[in-house]
Amino acid sequence: MNDRPRKTRSDSKMYQLPKDVLAQINGMLLDENMKYSDIQHWLETEQGMKISLSSISNYAVKIYQAAQRVSDDLERTKFFLDYIGSKSEIDAGKATTAILKSGLLQKIATAEEEFNEMPIEKAGRLLVEINRTEIARERLELDYKKKMQLALEAFEGDIMGQIKKYPEIREKFMAALFELKQKMQEN
């Protein structure tokens, strides 16, 4: 598919390390007193692996960036959930779709390295699937409203048939029904 040779990542050796060693390096990166040269020395003396400082540095930057993205996403999601919780009229399904769409579009816009590995067709399919989900939800919502309208009309017909002998009750019912219909249209 792609005739160009893939550019090798300067930190690719880091990703070839055993998971337990990588986990220890991640812990060292969290230690503010630990320098990249200390990690390099530990890898050489304790693990018998020679890794350049630039590989360690590039790996650390990517780990910090990924952690920051996760932190930002969690903060944004918490904000949305708090906002939705305080607004009972907001549909959680719509909000979830909006969050997913926003995240995917942000990934496309920033063209992160992991995303660059994904074929553009796959990214497009993901976006189309999210749109399909949104359209399906809107159709379901419309279908629900139509069924509610039909049920309300049937209910109105039944009640009106039974209370036509009682004009005062009929007037009160008509007023309540009119108010109910207005509220349903607002939502």
Which helices and strands occur, and which strands form pairs?
Blueprint (H helix, E strand, L loop, with lengths): L11 H4 L3 H12 L5 H11 L6 H34 L5 H19 L2 H5 L2 H44 L3 H20 L1
Helix pairs in contact: 4-5, 5-7
How would you concisely characterize the structure shown here?
The protein is an all-alpha fold and 187 residues long. It is built from 8 helices and no strands.
Explain this structure to me?
- The protein is mostly helical and 187 residues long.
- The protein has a domain at 7-72.
- 80% of the residues lie in helices and 0% in strands.
- It has 8 helices and no strands.
- The longest helix is centred in the C-terminal third of the chain and has 44 residues, at 120-163.
- It is rod-shaped, with a radius of gyration of 29 Å.
Question: What features would you highlight for this structure?
Answer:
187 residues; mainly alpha; disordered N terminus
Query: Which whole number gives the mean pLDDT?
Result: 78
* Uncertain ranges: 1-8
Helix-residue proportion: over 70%
Q: How much of the sequence is in beta strands?
A: under 5%
